[in-house]
Amino acid sequence: MGYKTPLFDEHRALGARIVPFGGWDMPLHYGSQVREHHQVRLDAGMFDVSHMRIIDLEGSGASAFLGRLIANDPARLRVPGQALYSCMLNRQGGVIDDLILYFRAPSRYRLVVNAATAEKDLAWIRDQAVGMAIAIRPRRDLAMIAVQGPNARAKAVALIPAALRERSLALKPFVAAEQGDWFISRTGYTGEDGLELICPADEVPALWRGLKGAEVAPCGLGARDTLRLEAGLNLSGQDMDEAVSPLESGLAWTVAWEPAERDFIGRSALEVQRERGGLRRCVGLLLTGRGVLRRQQAVLRDGKPVGEVTSGGFAPTLQRSIAFARIAPGSGEECRVLIHDKAVPARVVKPPFVRNGKPRIDL
Description:
- The protein is of the alpha+beta class.
- It is 22% helix and 34% strand.
- The chain contains 9 helices and 21 strands.
């Protein structure tokens, strides 16, 4: 038995198929993963993401601490509510986790980290903060629902506290608004517009039921994975991990090299990689033959292995099989993928595959 979110009973009442994920018992789907996927692309769906860990950091040393902790530069955040996507690296430049950082006020920040790595992340953060003027507070009293899709914001706004409604509708992407323990951000993991709603755990069941009454479809982990894959968004532990740097994970854009004096953890290792060159590429693949792309399948060029699939599957929006793969430099734009001992042709493409419900690649 795993941990359970405050919405576990709601999932069971809706007939969800429950599966273990990152130590939690979570809904895979509520009958049809594909239907849930299309609901998000065409209208609005909601995901229980209360298993993700919310961590508040406060204190006079918070800004300097975060400048060392993450590869992106928190000094870019100047207006309350602004958010930043980043990787947290080990000293070898590998990705411990990817996360979102929110600037709430001078010396007040919020991190949202992944469920599967939450305890490890928290231990790492605490270890790095020893001796610094900073308080680290895991917010287990809060829960979170992601509402995603072209109609998501319009359907969700009536369920948000009145004092936040206008501000929530006015939010720009990657900006948040808060009132008390309610925290609304225009972020997501699907390639669609939407909001992530953080509220007290004892209030989240009523929010979930209210959203369902507003015809926002409950969606599980299955649809969340196909949506994020189509959107070209990495999955922690598969597309990047502690043995692979952001430079080889398609996340070089999240590394802030300036100012040069900011000595974030892992910087020296990344500098060595960058200077050495010959880095593997993280690319998208579109299968042009028959089959389904899956993690750890070998990618071939002229019959020789040049890399492997890091995550893949069938894309309901495209009705094709797609994947991310990490391949050697100079491997070309055509390849084959070894599926059940058969070399199936595929084409290298640039993610995202889908954004805002529309294909972004040639099929």
